Amino acid sequence: MEVKRVSIREAKKRIKDDPELSKMLVRSGWKEIALDLDGDGMADVLFSNVDGGRKIDTIAVDLSGNGEFNLYLHDFDHNGIPDTVCMVEDGGKEQAVAFGGEVELGFINLGVRIANMLVAENFLNRELGVSLADLAAYLKLHAQAMLNALEKRENAQGIDKVYYFLNDAVTYYLATVDGTKPRVRPFGTILLYDGKLYIQTGKVKAVSKQIKANPFVEICAFLNGAWLRIATELVEDDNHDAKVAMLEKLPSLKELYSADDDNMQMFYMKDATATFSSFVTEPEVINF
Fold first, then answer.
1. Mind spelling out the 3-state secondary structure of 241-277?
2. Residue 228's closest CA among 182, 135, 163?
């Protein structure tokens, strides 16, 4: 089974953009991400790169709750099948004990591995004093939910795919017309809400006046060797809930805007044609 992994950089961006996950972040380095899932201040799960490169290849879990990672999911023997390895004390020395190595682990599917690990519950309970049944529920609730969200982004289609690309690119460029002259500027506000793709600006800005005069715009973004162009009509929407959702997604905007002021302005894309391109793949067109 081919394991589709995400990079540390991609995972960090996505955690930062998710209010719930960002609250769990304990530390974030160039080779690892540590999350506190139960709110006790200590990291419970660690996503990292051990073998080199940029992709997540290891998941470590603190089974005992003492702040030390003692269960590792990693391809230790480099046979292409990630192993489940438990670290235990043996005569004062830490020893790795592997089990269930014949079952493939997709890093996006902890549930399969957890089911296989249940056969070793007696061993783990004796050595570490933990219950695998409890661990299964714990990981399925927290770590699995996170990885499912990452998988959803990797496999997104339609308007979802357009949203994730713009969101992960962080900065995109919006082109408008000012009379007979083109204008372009960087933007960073993007929100998928109630099936619509929104951008946000301020009514006092020149870009707002240009959109009002001519709502047909183009957007361009670049990410990981691919680029996205969107030709669309922008429709102003004074939906209060959409404004609140944008401010919650990007809290830094609260220093400049309020959902109740007369400046914050939301537009959604109507009759949009989004084209994904790169030098190595055929263009993909999505209409929404």
1. HHHHHHHHHCHHHHHCCCCCCCCEEEEEEEEEEEEEE
2. 163
pLDDT digits (tens, 9 = 90+) for 164-203: 999 989 999 999 999 999 999 999 999 999 999 999 999 9
- Using CA atoms, how far apart are residues 107 and 84, in angstroms rounded to an integer? 12
* Both tokens assigned to 234: 């922008």
Residue 106 has pLDDT above 50, yes or no: no
Q: What tokens were used for 62? A: 């603190």
Q: Cβ contacts of residue 264 below 8 Å, gap of 6+?
A: 200, 202, 203, 243, 257, 258
How large is the average pLDDT for residues 123-136? 56
The HSE-up count of residue 287 (CA atoms within 13 Å, CB side) is: 1
Residue 191 makes CB contacts below 8 A (sequence gap 6+) with: 197, 198, 199, 200, 242, 245, 246, 249
Q: Give the CA distances from residue 139 to residues 43, 125, 133, 287, in Å, rounded to whole numbers and listed in that order.
A: 14, 17, 10, 37
Euclidean distance between CA atoms 3 and 130, whole angstroms: 29
H-helix or E-strand containing 116?
Answer: helix 110-117
Phi, psi of 74 (to 5 degrees): -160, 150
Q: Which helix (H) or strand (E) holds 11?
A: helix 8-17
Tokens of 249: 């997604």
Q: What separation in angstroms does the CA of 150 have from each of 7, 109, 202? A: 11, 11, 32
Question: Phi/psi zone of residue 263: left (φ > 0), alpha (ψ -120 to 50 degrees), beta?
Answer: alpha
Cα 62 from Cα 45, distance rounded (Å): 6
At 116, the amino acid letter reads N
